[in-house]
Amino acid sequence: MGRKGAWLTGLLLWGLGLSVLGAEGLDEYWPLSQYQAMHPEQAQATQTLKRLVRNAPQPARLHQQGPMRIALISPGGQLSDYWRRNRLALERRLTQLGLDYQLQSYDKAPEQDERQQTQQLVTALAADPDYLIYTLDAQFQHKYIARLLSRGRPKVILQNITTPLKDWEARPPLLYVGFDHQQGSRLLADFFRRQAAGRPHFDYAMLYRSPGYVSTARGDTFIEQMRPQSNSQLRLAFYTQSDRASARQAALSALEQYPDLDLLFACATDTALGALDAIKQKGRQGKVQVNGWGGGSQELAALARGELAATVMRINDDTGVAVAEAIQRDLQGLPLPRVFAGDLVLVTPDTPKTVLQGLQARAFRYSDMEQE
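and the corresponding structure tokens:
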């Protein structure tokens, strides 16, 4: 099946009322607010870790027998600078904490290539790391992580997910860390509901990433939040290949079928930039809105040019810092929360320049390119 066929299948699945994760959708995960309500005993550890992340580093001066080994596997090929910045923040905070470590990073495999991603994991585990920093999006990753959790080594830190899996309650990873995808899409839905108010109609198309957890958590949450808006209508929904080119093709198809769309909702940076390419190709600038998701460098530049209507900006480096602080606390035998969720802020072209500069200074305090 070619790309166009895959997108049409994705549209058909949505028409049948199925999530991109299948019938279960997000039912296998605890929503962050619900999980925190179920575990009030973790509140103090959560606040402690948040305080450590906000403040200057406090080295523990641990006696280490040798360098701890950390393997970091992150998606390759994305236009978003989130993963690169996260790695820089992690390394620089570990160094400031005075920890002796060796970090091996693997980030070259295409996001859709299960074989290459599996080989990366095999290679990383062959070095017997003490900590594995991994992500959880595609279904095939579940089985590998479950095996590692059962084995107990290495200790697993799951990046880009803040909703614990129900099945792993008895054997959880050391830490879930990231930014709440559902919260971010709720912020965007609030913004676009205000945009839709008073209009006769507000039609939009959904541009998912590839099928998986992130697409479901971001895209399906936005759709659910828009449903109460009576004049809002989802016209089309496409999977993409999580890259700019396939997002452009999906957006072109949407605009050909519905030239008067009000919004192309993008689930990631690549899909947002691809949607902007399509709008320019069709000459629809200023008529069809596009959102960002993440607020990295390319999105902020597009926002400044007035090309994006809004984006939800991650206080990016918090997650890398949180991982470094969590490792130090683990080495000390101190309590950790199960989840760390960084802050998200909605920004638009109307956000005052001074406010945006302050957010950038905070978000990129470790990963600013001038530090490299």
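(Above: one complete record from the training split.) Confidence is low (pLDDT under 50) at residues 1-24.
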